[in-house]
Design brief:
Largest sheet: 3 strands, mixed
Shape: elongated
Order of helices and strands: HEEHE
């Protein structure tokens, strides 16, 4: 019995080269892209408040394009616009780099603001 060599057919002939367009395609599930986007959002937000929920993402994938919606909670006071822009940028970069998809849209939904410890906690309500 002969060992099978790389690139050799049954009778020692080289295997035919199949053009890349005919080899098939790799499909990455939406939930995998959503997990990557969620992790990227966690990286961008940093350490959350003690009672904050972790960021999560919803993703819609069509062909080589992913549209991402990230839900997160932020500390208050903070520059909400700058933090959301940083999350958008980081999520788009990480999803693009790890999955190889275009990310034309990253919508960030801030679901809750957490007051910084000692800021209004003893006084009650914060405005």
């Amino acid at each position: 019995m002969r060992p099978v060599g790389a690139g050799a057919g049954e009778f020692g002939r080289p295997l035919p080269v199949v053009p890349p367009g005919e080899r098939g395609a790799t499909r990455i599930a939406d939930r995998v892209v959503a997990k990557i986007a969620s992790q990227a959002a966690r990286e961008a937000v940093g350490k959350p408040a003690d009672d904050a929920n972790r960021p999560y993402a919803d993703v819609v994938v069509a062909h080589d394009t992913a549209r991402v919606r990230v839900h997160l909670e932020l500390d208050y006071p903070t520059d909400i616009g700058a933090r959301c822009a940083a999350v958008r940028r980081h999520v788009a970069e990480r999803v693009g780099a790890l999955v190889g998809m275009q990310v034309p849209e990253v919508a960030v939904h801030v679901e809750r603001l957490h007051p910084a410890p000692g800021q209004g906690a003893a006084r009650g309500r914060t405005r």
